[in-house]
Each structure stands twice: as structure tokens, then as C-alpha cells.
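call fold(seq) -> C-alpha cells
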Amino acid sequence: MSKEFFNQYEFKKAVNLINTDPIESIARFREYISKYSEDYSALPYYASVLIKLGYEDEAELVLNRVEEVLNDESINYNKKDYLESNYLYTKLKLLSYQEKYLDLYKLYVDNLEVLRKFDLDRLLFYTRYKLGLLNGEKRNDHYYFFRQIIDYRKDDFLDKALLHTYEYREKNSDNSDISTFEKDFPLEKVIEEIDKYLLASPSIYNGFVEDTYVFKYDNCGRINNKMQNYFKVFCFHNTKNIISLYPVSDCELLPYTDLNYLNNYNKNDISNRTSQTEKFMKRYAKKKETK
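ret:
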């Protein structure tokens, strides 16, 4: 065992890779914990990245170790309050992805004072929905995310998707930094195509209630006017109900599905001279008018 109890530099290297290269992050955390076994504060972070890639059983073992530390009065650890809050936060994430909503709700209620500092409104609302505890909440009284929990509607999602189109960016110059798809990106066709990959392709568990899918599509969109080759799709956990999708960066080392076969097809399509998103918006408007 190392004479040092922790190493801030090595710890940060593992943390900084969680979102861009979670596989390497796991490897670095394993090495770090082996060298600095008494730096218990690293354990919730390690469990979190395990959850991200779906290693729920291993994450549960790691969190069980944290619980042992917290309950062992003989262990003199000056970061126990910090450790407890991170443990509870990560435990909620694990229980949510395990769909153990009753255990999750009880853990939240029993530790309300500690968890109050975290923004867990979405998780709590989703958990109450899963447990049948919304008590007549009306859909129209809530913002988009909560509306979709109460009663998912594809039209509502499509309205949300249009906020990330080229046309929206052009009409709203103040939002030029928003993540937007390119003018020739075939939004409608892509939404239809990705349906067969949802639930079938590897997903990432980033948040609490959503599954994240990464798709590669070269030159699909821009962020701060910089071209991007990937976009993410967010669905409610274990469903095909899409919450949102938009171009993203730094996905090269994440599990992804390559959709460039659609991209190559569109480049050879003469009709592609007309904005693909514009076509989609017109068809979508007609669908809404007929309802």
C-alpha cells in the first residue's frame, strides 16, 4: 500500500475521462483505488462510471464498500460527510437504472437533508410517476420534460427537435451557440432510422432516468459554428420514447452506431438540394393540421 493516502493529480485524470473515455476512466480508477485504498472518496466516482457503462452489479459492490466505511465508527476518515453525500447521489442513480423505484424513494425521503443540495426534481417526479404517486398531476401544468413523463407524445418531442435545426438557428441569431443540425441533415429519415437501434444498441447511463445513444453522422451539425460528426439521442430508460437529440462533440471513444450509410445516400440524392429539415417541417405541419 502506498505511503500516501491520495494523489490529487491521478484522481483528476480518472475523473476527467468519465464523460469522454469511460473505459479508460474505469481502468484509471481501478489502478488508483489499488494504490490509494484508503481514499474512499474515489469509490462513488468509480461506481458512477461503472453505472454509465451498465456494470450495475460491480457498481453495487463498490457502493456496498462505501456503506461499510460510513457505518464503521473505527474508521477515522475526515471526509465522511462528503463521502456520504456522493454515496447517496450515486446510489440513487444505481437504483433508478435498476428500476428499484420504491427503494429509491425511501432512500431519498430518509436522507432528504443531505440530498437537498442536489437538483433531483426530475428524478423525484419520475420516481413518483413510476410508483403511481403523481396524484392527478395535469400534463399541461408542466414544462416539456415533466409533460412527457406524465403522458409521452411524439408531436411534443418533434416540436423540441425542431429547436436544433438549421432553420431555427437562422431565425434566432441570439441562439447561434445552440447545438444545431446542418441544413441538409435528413432529420425525419434519421428519426425513423434510429428507431431500430433504440433498445438494441449499447446505451450510456449518464443521468438518472434517461438512456443515451450516440450516433455517428459526418458533418451532421454545429456547436458554436464548429462542425460535428456525432449526435446524441436521449430516451426515457428502457423505452423508445425520445426526449431530445442534437449534435455533440468528443464522442470518438464512446460506444456509437455509425449512420454514415444514410449520409452517403443523401449526397447522391438530387432532391437533397432542398433543405431536408425544411421538408420535414412541411410534412410535420401537415400532419398536425389533420389532427
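Residues 80-97 form the longest helix (18 residues).
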